[in-house]
Specification:
The protein is an alpha+beta fold. The protein is built from 14 helices and 40 strands. The chain has an 8-stranded parallel sheet, covered by helices on one side. A hairpin with a 2-residue loop joins β1 and β2. α2 packs across α3 and α11 packs parallel to α14. The radius of gyration is 27 Å and the shape is elongated.
């Protein structure tokens, strides 16, 4: 069997991974036996800040590091992150993948369960190159929403923040036992990974309203002076952060005689820059300036700054004049690089881009006007190329590192422009490629125990035992489905892919739909809610009955952002609309004094290509493929107004329900017909397809092409 480059790389990686996991041929990193340096006060530290650089002690000397790594979430298919369902074995396997990718740093956002730290300890003891940990500390967002002030309720938020951080000090030293609490990590922590924890990144992406409310309610708390940290010209919010940081440093120094560099999460919305062309006031209303938090002489490791920086959000990334006119050395407008340069000037300490990346999703939520570095609608190969470009910009602008978001895909996530169309309580049980937030990972979770039920690649051998849903003398239609797509395969007689048109009507919801397509005069045996139209490589799409058009209902009827059309409110009108996703409401640019209209894109447009990840021509965005007159199609469940395939919940009548409400279905009616020479079809027959509900999804892991691209990029910055 001939193996392509990706298959060879995968085979080598698996062998290497197994060697690491079993210890065969592996040598220990030696760090556990290496003496950790002490400062003049007898406090040990294995990482430190000098000037604008980050150093890690390794091999008996201090090494200047450009920190390269990945953010690891707590979720996997079938589970919400609060369930902490990832096993030690899975972490061990993932750590091997990550290390093979030439990454050296993993970052977590909160307290993980004991198995995570056990896996890190065991992996590093058998690996020639250890993985270092940036440990985050989460804040209860429900408390933020309720109290709106870090000092409210006798300092509840602040005190809980300090307690959680101190618990984590005990955890990384392997001396903690946390009681069981729903949604939180618990158990006995025995693995001392403190040698590998090279920094704290405390907090979350701060809500500007939380920052502003804290500042306004506590004018008398604008300074803090501690043993290890103090403020200078600070706001009350910055003083709150300083106190938390000083507490964690002091606790670890006194209890364990150890310390490590410290930082606080920040993002563009609360940066220290002015963005005069930002259309949304909230995105530029508050500042969190960690330059106002200083270290005393007793804190040798030092402080650094951390930011989450994406190329497409907030909107000033596209509309700020200086950024839009900035060109990099290739002559390309590079608003991301321009922002990085601007931000770097605001600091005297090292700056880490603690999150960056783009999602390899079908759905899209934001466009980057100049670069194409969009929030979605990117294939997995392009995802890797963009991540490599962003990493290059981060490195060349003098940052101390870049940590990619994210290691694994996260099925539980939601996105603002698709969240109303699914059910929050069941998101982890199926994969929605329309929701870009689910697809940031370098590691994909594809449906199926070992392989997917179908690959849209033109090979129809896998359809031999599939359900034949409809057939007549001219065409046969087979249907399959899994946790991500519904798959169709149409085999038609005398079908010319370049000249003829394939029509597939789908009846989702009883009591509504169109019996004909007014634009083509095609007629259907049953009222159709959707019409799949295959018309060559460039002009194929899914259309939706105007009455069942969730986009139109949301933005014309509910939010009044686009014009309402009375014809669309009539069931059975014969009108099928293109399918859109919103990218942004109408905005006003205050500096340009210009209005940017409501924006959308046609998400129902179907992409031609090979969707088999084992093939060299693999395109993760491919929706359909044709070979020898056979057409394979895959459709994301959400594009058929399915709100949760695991419970067979579909979107009910939008107008009767006055919104997006689920109802159960037994299945769909689906048919198929061929339009030759533009001639109308007398009537397309339709028959029934159903699927089994499920309680837990099947899935298997797959390293995306972006993994291998980023592996090469990471190697450049050793």
């Amino acid at each position: 069997m001939k193996m392509n480059i990706k298959q060879i790389a995968s085979a080598v990686l698996i062998v290497s991974m197994l060697a690491v996991m079993t210890g065969c041929g592996a040598k220990t990193s030696g760090l556990d036996n290496e003496k950790i340096p002490e400062d003049a006060n007898g406090i040990k530290h294995a990482a430190k800040i000098e000037g604008r650089s980050f150093y890690v002690y390794s091999g008996g000397d201090w090494e200047k590091k450009f920190l390269k790594g990945v953010n690891i979430g707590a979720g996997k298919p079938g589970h919400f992150p609060g369930e902490l369902a990832i096993t030690k074995e899975e972490y061990m396997r993932w750590f091997a993948y990550i290390s093979e990718m030439n990454a050296e740093v993993i970052r977590v956002y909160t307290t993980m369960k004991p198995e995570f730290y056990d896996a890190l300890y065991d992996f590093n003891r058998t690996s020639s190159q250890p993985l270092y940990l940036m440990q985050g500390v989460w804040i209860n967002e429900d408390d933020i929403e309720t109290l709106k002030d870090a000092y409210a309720a006798n300092g509840k938020i602040k005190n809980n923040f300090i307690k959680d951080t101190k618990d984590l000090v005990d955890i990384i030293h392997g001396k903690a036992s946390l009681p069981s609490k729903p949604g939180f990590a618990s158990g006995t922590y025995k693995s001392d990974v403190s040698r590998y924890v090279i920094g704290w990144i405390l907090g979350i992406e701060w809500d500007p309203n939380f920052v502003t409310a804290t500042n306004n309610a506590n004018p008398d708390k604008a300074s803090y002076s501690g043993k290890y940290l103090y403020t200078q010209n600070a706001s009350p919010f910055e003083a709150f952060l300083c106190e938390v940081g000083d507490s964690v440093i002091g606790y670890e120094a006194s209890e364990y005689g150890m310390a490590r560099p410290l930082s606080f999460t920040n993002w563009l919305t609360t940066d220290t820059l002015e963005h005069p062309n930002e259309p949304f006031e909230q995105e530029d209303m508050a500042q969190v300036d960690t330059e106002h938090i200083k270290k005393t002489e007793l804190f040798t490791p030092g402080v650094f700054a951390s930011y989450h920086v994406y190329p497409y959000y907030p909107d000033f990334m596209s509309y700020q004049r200086e950024y839009a006119s900035f060109k990099d050395e290739s002559g390309k407008v590079n608003t991301y690089r321009a922002y990085l340069r601007d931000l770097f000037k605001q600091h005297t300490v090292p700056v880490l881009v603690a999150e960056f990346g783009v999602p390899a999703s079908r759905g899209m939520a934001h466009e980057s006007l100049y670069s194409g570095y969009n929030q979605g609608n990117l294939d997995e190969t392009k995802q890797g190329g963009i991540q490599a470009d962003l990493l290059k910009d981060i490195y060349e602008e003098g940052y101390c590192g870049g940590i990619v978001f994210a290691w694994q895909d996260e099925w539980f996530k939601r996105t603002w422009n698709t969240a109303d169309f699914d059910l929050p309580d069941t998101r982890p049980y199926w994969s929605n490629p329309q929701t870009n937030e689910q697809q940031f990972g370098l590691l994909a979770f594809d449906p199926g125990q070992k392989k997917s039920v179908c690959y849209v690649d033109g090979d129809v051998d896998e359809w031999e035992d599939s359900q034949l849903v409809y057939s007549d003398e001219n065409v046969r239609l087979h249907v399959k489905s899994d946790e991500k797509y519904i798959y169709l395969m149409a085999a038609a007689k005398n079908y010319d892919f370049e000249k003829d048109e394939l029509l597939i009507p789908i009846d989702i919801l009883q009591g509504q739909g169109n019996l004909n397509h007014s634009a083509s005069d095609a007629k259907f045996q049953k009222p159709a809610d959707f019409l799949v139209k295959i018309s060559g490589k460039k002009d194929s799409r899914i259309l939706v009955d105007a009455y069942y058009d969730s986009f139109n209902y949301m933005y014309a009827e509910r939010l009044k952002m686009i014009d309402s059309n009375p014809e669309y409110k009539k069931s059975g009108s014969g009108i099928f609309n293109p399918m859109y996703l919103c990218l942004g409401r109408e905005i006003y640019l205050p500096q340009d004094k210009k209005t940017v209209p409501f924006s959308k894109y046609e998400t129902g447009l179907l992409a031609y290509g090979d969707a088999n990840p084992k093939h060299e021509s693999f395109n993760s965005l491919a929706d359909f493929c044709e070979k020898n007159g056979n057409v394979e199609i895959r459709i994301p469940w959400q594009l058929l107004n399915v709100m949760d395939p695991s419970t067979k919940a579909i979107m009910g009548d939008l107008y009767e329900n006055e919104g997006f409400k689920p109802q159960k279905t037994e299945g769909f009616n689906i048919g198929c017909g061929v339009v030759k020479g533009g001639k109308a079809i007398a009537e397309i027959g339709m028959d029934f397809y159903s699927w089994d509900a499920w309680e837990q999804p099947t899935y298997h892991e797959r390293l995306k092409p972006s993994y291998y691209i980023l592996k090469q990029a990471f190697e450049k910055y050793n």
